[in-house]
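[step 3/7] fold_predict: job queued, chain A
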Amino acid sequence: MFAGVRLEVIVPAAAALLAVLVVSSAAQGSNYECNPSSNGLSDNCIGCICQASTNCNQSTQCIGGNSLCGAFLISRGFWVDAGRCVLTGDSADDPQSWRRCALDIVCAADTIRSYINRFGKDCSGDQLVTCEDYVMIHKNGGWNCGKSLVGTKFWNVYEECKSIIFSKGLNI
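[step 4/7] structure written:
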């Protein structure tokens, strides 16, 4: 349990929310567009990223001077690098669209997936691209993902979440 919330409630809820993702076309460079296709980032992995970020508290607003918002604590820069995912009917050109997206669990998960699709790589140096790499990319950013998180509260919560998933015979 994390802060009074059972993981078996969080992971299926994240999976159900992520099942409604709409895929946009992807481009490269500064014209990168939101691309929330799965491409190896499992629902269990994204659920543990959410858990490590805020105990997957969907009522999390904005912290740090309103610079990190929602259950995944997404910044405007992260959102831009992820391709500016938006809520249906919203415009990426609206200065507040990043915040509305970050505060919506489905749009925020789209943003995480799109960011991983853009920056996904082996961050840990083990010659594999796994959930651990995605966790490092989420926390450290795509440009500096190799920085170890071992021993941080974020990593410890992720590891606990991963252990619970493994103990249920599931993969991450």
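[step 5/7] annotate
Helices lie at 7-18, 43-54, 76-81, 97-103, 105-119, 131-140, 153-167.
Residues 105-119 form the longest helix (15 residues).
exit 0
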